[in-house]
Amino acid sequence: MKKGLLFIMSFLVVLLLVVLGWFYTFDIDSDTYIIGESSSTCISCHGVMTGLSPLHAQLECISCHKGDNLLADKDSSHFGMIRVPGNLSDAAETCGICHAEALQNIQTSLMTTNSGIISIDKYIFGEFDSPNISTHINEIHHSPADEHLRALCARCHLGSEKEEYGAIDELSRGGGCNACHLNYSAEAKSQLADYLKNNEDLPSVHPSVDFQITDDHCFGCHSRSGRISTNYQGYHETLMSKAELGSKEGYKVLMDDRVFKYIQEDIHHQRGLACIDCHGYEDIMGDGKTYLHEEDAVKIACEDCHADSHNNTAILTDLSYTQQRIFKIRKFEHLDKPILLTKKDSVPIINSYVDSNGSAYLISKLDDAVFNLLPPSASCAREYGHQDLTCSSCHTGWAPQCIGCHVSYEPNADGYDLLDKQPMKGSWVEYAGSFLSGPPTLGVREHENGKGIEPAIPGMIMTMDINSFSSHAMPGDDSFYRLFAPAAPHTTTAVGRTCTSCHNNPLALGYGRGQLTFNKSNYQWQFTPEYESLPQDGLPADAWTGFLQEPAQKTSTRLNFRPFTVKEQQMILTVGACLTCHDNDSEMMRASLVTDFNSYLKTISKDCILPKFD
C-alpha cells in the first residue's frame, strides 16, 4: 500500500515538473497559435483565431473560457463556459491558474476593496469612529452610508463584473483582469460590431490580453472623484451641458456627456509618458498587503526618478521571479545595467536604468521612448525653510476644487444600485455647487519622521441631510462638513510655484480666494474673502481654515492631515511681508533660504517692516 502510494506521488511530481517545464519554456516571441493544430473541437465552429498575445496564443480555448473542447455538440461543449473570463468571480479558475501571485495581490488591492472610500464615507456618516478602519466593498449592506455608496460610488471597483463583449472605454468600470489587460485591435472591434449587429459570422480576431495598459484603461474610474485621468490630460470638469457648449474651443465632451475645459496638462503627459510608466506592478496589482488609503499603497515617488545621485539600485538577477518575467516579456534590453528602486519598500522600477556615467533613464512601456531623468534644481534641495515641502506642493500646477454641494436622501427618486446593478426606489441625490480650478491649498501631513507639506483639495464642503434617510426623521436637519483631503492631482509642472504664490496667496494658506494684503502703516495682514461666509461655521465657502485662526477639530478626511496652525501661518506671512518689497528671486530672498530664517531676520535692515501679530 505504501509502495503504491509512493509510486503515485512520484508520478504526480514528475508530471507537475513536466507541466511546469512546458509552461515556463513558452517562447514569448512566438506567434504560433497552438489551438489551430490541436484536436480541440472549438475550431470546428470558430476556426483558427488570431489576435491574441504570443503567450496566450499557445493556450487552448478552455484554459480561459472553460467548457469542454472534446465535445462536438455546441450545447455540450459550451456547458460551464465562461463567456467573459477574467472577472474576479472566476479569476481563480481562469487567469489565476497561471498568475496566482497576481490574483492574490489584486484581491487585497484598494482597487478591489475600496477600503479607503468606504471607511471615509462611514466616518462622515458617523458609522465609523475613524476613517482608518479597514473594510471591503463586499461588506457594505444598507445603512445610510452604504446606500450612499451604492447610489454614488460603488461602481468603481475591480469586482464589478464585465458582462458584455467589447473594448474598455470611458464608461467601463471593473471587470477584474480585463480592466487593465484587455485590448481590442481595430479589426477585432470591427468584427465584433458586425457579429453583434447581424449575429452571423463569428469573429476570427480575438481581443488580446497583454501588458499594453494604456491610459484609456485607467480612465473609466480615475476620471471620477479626484479626476486624476482628466487632470493628467489637462482637463477640468465644468457644470456646462453638452448643449450649452456649442462650438466653443478648448473643451471636450466625454462619453457620459460631462463637459471638460482644458487648463494645463501634466508635464509627464506632455512628454508622452503613460500612467504605467510610473506606476508599476506593485503600485497597480498591489503587493499582497492591505492598505487603508491610496497614499499608503503607492510605492513610486518623484524623488525616486529625479535625484542628484542614484545609489538605490539593483540588477535584474536580484529581482523577484515575477519582475524578471515582466522584464523579459516587455523585451527590455538593459540586462546588465542597474535598475532604480523606490525609496519606499525598494520596489524595482523595471523600465529604468542607470548608465556608466551615473545618468538615469526611463523607458516608455508602450512605445519604447527613452527619457533622461533630470535631477531636481538647486532650489529644491535648499537646507532651510523648505525642507518639509514635498515635490507636489511646489510642482502641482492646479487642482479641481468643488464647493457648496448638498446631499439628501429622496425616498421617491428613481435610483440605481451600482453594486447590485439594478434599479431601486429611493436614492441619495447629490446637488453640485461650484466646480473651481486653481493652485491647490497646502496642508500639513504629520508622520512618524516629522511632517510634510502636501497639496489639499476640498473633499467635502457640503451639507448632508442625514435624517432624510429615515422616514421617521424630521426633514431639513442638515449636517455640515468642511473637510479637505490630501491630493496628488497629477498636474505636475516643470517649474515650481513662486514664493508669492504660497506666502502671499490666501488660497494656498487655506483661507480661500480673496485679497490678502499687508498694511505697512499698522504692520497688519488683512484678508477680504471672495466668497461669503457660511452660517454653519462662519468661514468663507471655499476656505479650509480661518484667517489667523487655529484649525477646527475635524477638518480632513485623514486623521494625520491638517491646515496650518496660527504659528505656522504667522511664519509664512512673515516671509510674505518681505515679498511685498523684495522680488521672488532677489538676493535678499535667496539668502534667506540658505540659513535659518529667524536668525536671518536679525541681520536685515532696520527699515524693513515686519508684521505684528496679536
Overview of this structure, please?
With 614 residues, this protein is α+β, with helices and mostly antiparallel strands. It folds into three domains: 168 residues, no CATH class; 41 residues, no CATH class; 221 residues, no CATH class. It is built from 26 helices and 20 strands. Strands 12, 13, 15, 16, 17 and 20 form a six-stranded mixed beta sheet that branches. Strands 3-5-4 form a three-stranded antiparallel beta sheet. A hairpin with a 6-residue loop joins strand 9 and strand 10. Helix 8 packs across helix 9. The protein is globular. The termini are far apart. About 5% of the residues have low confidence.
Give the assembly state of these chains: single chain
Any idea what the radius of gyration is? Answer: 28 Å
| Estimated share of beta-strand residues | 15-25%
Largest sheet: 6 strands, mixed
Number of domain modules: 3
Helix content: 25-40%
Characteristics of this structure?
3 domains; 20 strands; alpha+beta; 28% helix; 614 residues; 17% strand; 6-stranded mixed sheet
List the helices and strands and how they pair.
Elements: H1 2-24, H2 43-46, H3 62-65, H4 74-78, H5 95-98, H6 100-107, H7 110-113, H8 115-125, H9 144-152, H10 178-181, E1 182-183, H11 186-198, E2 208-209, H12 215-222, H13 228-233, E3 235-237, H14 242-245, E4 251-253, E5 259-262, H15 267-271, H16 275-278, H17 281-285, H18 294-297, H19 302-305, E6 313-314, H20 321-329, E7 339-340, E8 352-354, E9 360-363, E10 370-372, H21 391-395, E11 399-403, E12 405-417, E13 422-431, E14 434-438, E15 441-447, E16 450-465, E17 479-486, H22 500-503, H23 506-509, E18 514-519, E19 524-529, E20 561-562, H24 566-578, H25 587-591, H26 597-601
Parallel strand pairs: 12-16
Antiparallel strand pairs: 1-2, 3-5, 4-5, 6-7, 8-9, 9-10, 11-14, 12-13, 15-16, 15-20, 16-17, 18-19
Helix pairs in contact: 8-9
